Each structure stands twice: as structure tokens, then as C-alpha cells.
Amino acid sequence: MEKPNLEYIDKLARGDESIKNTLIDVIKTEFPDEVEEYNSSIEKKDFKEIEDNVHRIKHKFSILGLETSYEKANEFEKNLREHNLDNMQKEYFEQTLLDISLFLKTI
Amino acid sequence: MDCIVIDDEQMARVIIRTLCNEIKRINLVKEFSGAIDAMKYLNENSVDLIFLDIHMPNFSGLDFIKTLKDPPKIIFTTSDPKFAIQAFEYDFIADYLLKPIELPRFEKAIRKAEKLQLSESKVETKKEAAVKNDFYVNIDRRLIKIDLSTIYLIKAKGDYIDIKTEDKNYIVHSTLKKIEEKLPDSLFLKVHRSYIINVKKIIDIEDNSVLIKKEVIPVSRSNRPELMKRLDLL
Question: From A86, B28, B170, B199, which residue has the greatest number of CB atoms within 10 Å?
């Protein structure tokens, strides 16, 4: 299974530690809020809101090099647009959220 | 270029800011998390370029561009390739960047926006020329006024151009390309890489040449369709 990494952030920072730290700080601040919003939309079973949250969060997947998770999030999002909440896709998505949360604690 | 970014995701805005900082000629003046605030800002300020996310809650990037009266150049920044065709329906869209955006691709998008801006300013120059009846040329440090309607032919001659009018010829240090930008499309046409003619002065056309005054001017094959389009054929 793929693991989150900082390759893209490193490429963007081009060796500048302050840029790298800024980017990491933003992701560390923004990601937990996005997860909270996602969970709240799941509770409400609001398809449009879940879709919007999945869409916003999946960008973090690509930033952290999680290509497979990103593709799976795309499929999840597409099904949500058709008001279809696929449980396996949901579980995979939520596992990725957990993996990222743990990874962010290590950096 | 002054620009703004509109994206509901903070990380996306910070990435755009980081990329803009790498390109000195780009000046990111403001960041917005929603389209409504950006609309208010644009009512009182103008920018050259907008980095615009498409998928935003409440008011999408595609809804936003429909509200723009005098749109600047737009570069879409999105995770969805599915909107690409729809986005390019507008001629002020410079590019469509898929997230996550990397510097080389970002630089390319900026170059596209600059090119689009430049081609529009050339069109503006041409439009201005269309309402003018004359222009000035610099010959031996003298600025000489030439009435556009009197010009029947402009010929390239190395680093110079020969402007032929009803009563006089002027040799000017310039290029056909430069002068072409100043001439109104309604009157002038480049028929060959070395010749621009005044279409109103054509006497006749035969195969791949036109007769203007007493001069036979070649017409290149690629320019012939445009020339035929300009003629009032019975």
C-alpha cells in the first residue's frame, strides 16, 4: 500500500526550508478541519456536501503522493454525484484520511 | 502581470502563491477563498490574470466567469479534467492546470496568458489604426505624415520598407511585420511575404498576381484565399 510522502512539497520548496515549513503548517492546520467537515457531512448524509468535501480533500492526497487513493477518491466522488454512497469506497477513503492524519503527526 | 487567486482550499492558494513567487513578472495582489468576495474586489480593482478554481461550493468558477463584464485572462486550476472543453469556450481562458501544479507547467501557463494578452493588445492597436486616416514615418530625423488612403503598395527591401503612394515613395527603416500591425485590415492585405497592398487600388487579378498601378505584385498561394474573400465578386 502506498504511503504519504513529501516529494511534491520538496519539489515546490526547491530546498527552501521556510517554504517547506509553511506548506506543511498549512496542510497540518487545514486537513483536520476538512476531515471534521467530511465526517459531519457523512452524518447528515448530504450527498452534495460529502462530494464537495471529498473533492477538496482529494487534492491533499495528490499533494502527499497518494496516487491510487486519489484515483479511488475520484471514483468515490463520481458515485456521490449520482447519489450513490459506495461503502467500500467510503472505507478506503476514510482509511486514507487516517493514514494521512498519522503521517502529519510525524512531520 | 497583477493577478489574484480564487480557491476555497487554503493549501491550493498557498501553492499558487509559492509558484507566483518563483516568477518575478507575476505579482499576486490578493487571495480569495470564494468567488463572491473576488467579485466585490474586481468591481473596484482590475487585474491582468486570475487563477481560478472551478469546483467551489455555492459559486463555481464557471459561474464566476459568467459574471465578469471585462474579463482578464483566466487560468483554471482544478482537479477535474472533465471541465476542460467547457472552459475553453471562452477566448479569455489562457490555460487549464490540473492539480497538483508543478513549476514547469505553471510557467508554461503564464507564458500562454502573456501571449494571449499580447495578441489582444495587437488587435487593439489594429483597431485603433482602423479609425486613423494617417500615420507618421521617420525619415532622416523628420516625421512625415502619410495619408493611408494614398498608399497603394508597401514593399520589403532588406532592413527597409518602400511605401509607395500616389505621388511619392518613402524608404523607411522598418519591417513589413511592424507596419502591418499599424494598418487597418479593411484597407490593406499582405499578399506575399514581401508585399502589402491596398486592396482598393487593385486594377486586376490574374492567377497568382495582382496589378496595382503599373506594378504586377505576386500573390502567394496561402494568401490568395484571403484576397479573394476581400473582393466584391459579382
Answer: B28
Contacts of B78 in chain A (CB under 8 A): none
3.30.70, 1.20.120, 1.10.287, 1.20.1440: CATH of A7-106: 1.20.120
Strand partners, B134: B147
Per residue in A27-51, pLDDT (tens digit) is 999 999 999 999 999 999 999 999 9
Same-domain check for residues B74 and B52:
yes
pLDDT for B64-119, tens place per residue? 998 888 899 999 999 887 777 777 778 899 999 999 999 999 999 999 999 998 88
What would the grid cell of residue B34 be? 470564494
Q: Would you mind telling me the total number of residues written for chain A in this entry?
A: 107
pLDDT digits (tens, 9 = 90+) for B42-63: 988 999 999 999 988 888 898 8
Chain A nearest-CA distance from B136, in A, is: 50
* Model confidence, pTM: 0.68
The parent domain of residue B42 ranges over 2-129
Q: What is the dihedral of CA B67, B71, B77, B80, to 10 degrees?
A: 50
CB contact under 8 A, B57 and A8: no
Q: Grid coordinates in use for B40?
A: 466585490
